[in-house]
Design brief:
Order of helices and strands: HHHH
Structural class: mainly alpha
Shape: elongated
Strand content: under 5%
Length: about 120
């Protein structure tokens, strides 16, 4: 074949790479799509609950930050943080969640809380 002659096999491969099967194609069975929708709806509800729980947690930690600032206490409490991490790792294990992931998540949250506490403390000085 010359370079100007189309190669049907190459064209099919390129078309497949450019247009991979998606959940919207007839190849995805209706029952599979329905199950994906059901599971994703549950995930969306859980995500909403997580956001609301984090919002409630941050309302409490804001109050802790104000109390610490009013009494000139440091924004961070490494001993408490270590206890919380150990407790969360145990909870994660019992819930069959990767404890390392739970620790990373809590460390991220703690860092944000400390940042909030530092901001509150800076505002009371």
């Amino acid at each position: 074949m010359s370079d100007s002659t189309p190669n049907p096999a190459t064209e099919e491969t390129q078309a497949a790479e450019e247009n991979p099967a998606t959940e919207e194609t007839p190849a995805a069975d209706a029952a599979v799509r329905a199950e994906l929708t059901r599971l994703r709806d549950s995930i969306d509800n859980i995500d909403a609950a997580v956001v609301h729980m984090l919002a409630e947690r941050f309302k409490c930690t804001q109050q802790v930050g104000v109390l610490k600032a009013e009494h000139q206490l440091p924004p961070a409490d490494p001993a408490r943080e270590a206890r919380q991490i150990a407790r969360l790792r145990e909870l994660a294990e019992s819930a069959k969640l990767d404890p390392a992931f739970a620790e990373k998540l809590l460390n991220f949250i703690i860092a944000e809380v400390i940042r909030h506490h530092e901001t509150i403390a800076d505002g009371t000085r």
